[in-house]
Amino acid sequence: MSEATAKTEERGRVPRPGEVPVTVVDCDVHPYPESPEMLREYLPEPWRSANIPTRRDIYLSPNQGQRRDARPDTGGHPGSDPALLERQLFEEAGVDYAILLPFGSVGSVPDYRHGAALATAYNDWQIDLWLGKWNGHGRYRGSIVVYEHDTEAAVREIERVAEHPGFVQVLVGTSSFEPFGKHRYHPIWEACARHGLPVAMHLNSALGAALPPTPCGYPSLFIEWHTLYCMNYMTQLVSMLCEGVFEKFPDLKMVFVEGGSAWLAPLMWRLDKDWRSVRWSVPWLKRPPSGYLRDHVRFTTQPIEEPADRRQLLTLFEMMDAEHILMFATDYPHWDFDDPGRALPPQLPAELRRRIMSENARELYSLPATRPSVSDLKPSEQPHRLS
Description:
By secondary structure, this protein is α/β, with parallel strands linked by helices. It has a single domain, classed as TIM Barrel (Alpha-Beta Barrel), CATH 3.20.20.140. Helix content is 35%, strand content 11%. Strands 2-3-4-5-6-7-8-9 form an 8-stranded parallel β-sheet. Helix 3 packs parallel to helix 4 and helix 4 packs parallel to helix 5. It is globular.
């Protein structure tokens, strides 16, 4: 049986009793420790006794960046209570699987030893709780946190936990001292490709404000920063394409999370045009830069660009090949959360909607086509309930 035939039969088969068809995969869910102190037990000395850094934001978003209703009654951080998360994400929003991206400050820590220790702590915390104790329903998948500015430490961490079945990708930030196409980062990409782990690139603060957030320095307002931070994603994508990362590592997949996507098509037009003019300077590229996107690059929807006429979004989707490279995300529990029922235009063709909402992510992360229904779970596997 061919792979295409197998996929068709899997898509068309009738779910067995106790199974629910997967229709929504959320590719950007942020679990938080209830407090930074929760990570201490996972840290060795001297870091266990040191201050645990929090995000060093200099541009403050509404409500400190969180949904007001996502804060637990206990006063913990939004995204720290699995019972509340499951109710809001699984029950109310209808999400079937959640891809977890721990939202710490690892990439913003200037001491590389401290940053590497924190990455290990975040991964052990995920293994114990979100991929262990709290994952009886099996609907969480984790991301391996690495301190990407120390290549050797990042590779060691990938090797340490890559075989854990709950991890489906490696997580890096968008801010770096050099673009990610540079050779210093290649050992990380080699380890990810060898283990079949996509690399998720998610917005992070600019190395503790050591680097300006835009090429022209520091804007004054949050709205300026929030509009412009997609330039980091553009820089990293162009670097990885032009430096031949995907030719060198043909099995590598990249996921650009929370950076928008409407800029992709015109950026690729410009890059392909320049490639045709100076292709002699990048002889390792066997095809136009845009030709690598479908095989190697994915984007998430949130924050989705919203033209006044939402039908225009369909044109953007066609130009960027959204049917194959776009994946849905809510960005829970942040203030600009996208509800699965309202995030995409109603005029979206059914097959395109299906691929964006679930199929592209299922294929990338090897997720099943169905999940167990809540009523079919054993008592020990039941979702958490608020007391």
